[in-house]
Amino acid sequence: MLTLTNRRVLRVERDASGDFSVPAATMSSALRLPPTELRNRLGRGEVKSQVEIGQGEHLGTFRLTLRCGGRLWNATVSSDGTVIDEVFTFDRERLANWRRRHGTSGKGP
Q: Coil, strand or helix: which one is 97?
């Protein structure tokens, strides 16, 4: 499914069993990471994902969350995989923890 959001084309797929899949190009764009850096972080198990099912007035939608270090991407997705809305932020607490672990006060993850 291709969706133009914030002037970017995003693609989120959903298989026959209802599971979502975020292609690497979309993940790289969403997390604002170069593809090689994303691959490295995926290989180290640093990218986490979560799917929440909409309830009540949000029934029929899902919230997809990707986390990598202090980077956080939330997308509201319809049942057919259409990205309705997205938000990218830095999780300040996670970013501070990452910086403490890696001994840096410069650029974050």
A: helix
Match 């300040």 to its residue by tokens.
Answer: 92
Contacts of 77 (CB under 8 A, 6+ apart): 12, 20, 61, 62, 63, 64, 83, 84
- What pLDDT, in 10s, does the model give residues 13-56? 888 888 999 988 889 989 999 999 999 999 999 999 999 999 99
The model carries a pTM of 0.75
d(CA 79, CA 53): 10
Q: Residue 68 contacts by C-beta under 8 Å, 6 or more apart in sequence?
A: 31, 33, 38, 41, 46, 47, 48, 109
Cα separation, 23 vs 35, in Å, equals 11
Whether residue 1 contacts residue 80, with contact meaning beta carbons closer than 8 Å, is answered with yes
The DSSP element (H or E) to which 29 belongs, if any, is helix 24-31
